[in-house]
Amino acid sequence: MPEGLTKFFFSTSGTEANEAAVKIARLYKKPAYKVIVRYRSYHGSTLASISMTGDYRRWFIEPHTMHGVVRVPEPYCYRCPLGLKYPECGLACVNYVDYVIKNEKNVAAILVEPITGTNGVVVPPKEYLPTLKKIAEDNDVLFIADEVMTGWGRVGDWWAVNLWGVKPDMLTTAKGASASYVPIGITAVSKKIADYFEDEFFAHGHTFEAHPVSLAAIPAVIEEYRRLDLLSHVRAMGEYLSKRLEELKERHKSIGDVRGVGLFWAIEFIKDSRKTPFGTYEDKYRGVATPVDKLAAELLSMGVYVFSGPSWFIIAPPLVITREQIDEGIDKIDQVVKKLDEQYQG
Ligand SMILES: Cc1ncc(COP(=O)(O)O)c(C=O)c1O
């Protein structure tokens, strides 16, 4: 765990990890209760966690979402939501959060994926996360890192916050904690927060919380990650994958951007030189299969699984992947993207 996170609530999913986090934040910071999140985000599927989600998956349950969620723009420099360019923008997206906190009042926490996951692997500029943490600190607001996707070596470090030396007040995680063999969710808190609940009742729990089978998996998995020296392996394979993806981008007009860290990447597809996307969140909401979804389906029939957003693929292979397997995956992506080029780029 990042330094300073000393106590844990164990549940069985990332969703529940975030659910516990928002309850802890609201009890600890009461009467403050608002949570700041970003539009391009996914935090889970139950009522609180889907309400804190920014993307289209939240739309299905509106207007029945949890109150007290405030959304801010994300550091998506490829298509800046503020129409600005880094670094001339002066990090307007993050500085705006300070304005939001001061004008909202009663903000308890900021919840962010340090590197946005399914919404396109948005790696922030280097100043972004430390600045966001400082804004949280200066305004006495808790900083919660959702590392459900980015934790456990995915980015070549145990945690994505470590890439920028940021120490969150809380961290939520799941998936890789058991290498996904058994269900597990973890809400980690600082000593200060933990101490508060020595005297105050944390009214929360599940039948399967802290389940011995799930808990037994965590140290076993950590031992295996260490035995295989997986962090070094991810960094080495990540460098190789990055090189292969950059080559892919050079070869295909339909690829507008590739971005990522370690074994956590996105390929963003564009229809033309004006960066027109192949699909939108509205398409996903309506259940329309975009050309990128169709490409992903074709790849699956060829034995390669990628998660498809409206106009991007997420490339997040198992951490034990080899160079040969990366080559196989890239070659097959190369074959299907050729068809996209032929169809759309004349
Ligand atoms: C960043 C992030 N947070 C939370 C979740 C929810 O986790 P789970 O599906 O284990 O409930 C996910 C799921 O993919 C996720 O990507």
Strand content: 15-25%
Number of strands: 11
Query: What is the structural class?
Result: alpha/beta
CATH architecture of the largest domain: 3-Layer(aba) Sandwich
Largest sheet: 7 strands, mixed
From N to C, what is the helix and strand string?
EHEHEHEHEEEHHHEEHHEEH
Rg calc: 20 Å
List the helices and strands and how they pair.
Elements: E1 5-11, H1 14-29, E2 34-38, H2 47-52, E3 69-72, H3 92-104, E4 107-112, H4 128-138, E5 142-146, E6 170-173, E7 185-190, H5 191-199, H6 212-227, H7 230-251, E8 255-261, E9 264-269, H8 281-286, H9 291-301, E10 307-308, E11 312-315, H10 323-344
Parallel strand pairs: 2-3, 2-4, 4-5, 5-6
Antiparallel strand pairs: 1-7, 6-7, 8-9, 9-11, 10-11
Helix pairs in contact: 3-4, 7-10, 9-10
What does this structure look like?
Helices cover 38% and strands 16% of the residues. By secondary structure, it is an alpha/beta fold. It has 2 domains: 5-227, Aspartate Aminotransferase, domain 2, CATH 3.40.640.10; 230-345, Aspartate Aminotransferase, domain 1 (Alpha-Beta Complex), CATH 3.90.1150. Strand 2, helix 2 (47-52) and strand 3 (69-72) form a beta-alpha-beta unit. Helix 3 packs parallel to helix 4 (128-138), helix 7 runs parallel beside helix 10 and helix 9 crosses helix 10 (323-344). The longest helix is centred in the last third of the chain and has 22 residues, at 230-251. The model has no long low-confidence stretch (mean pLDDT 97). The protein binds pyridoxal-5'-phosphate.
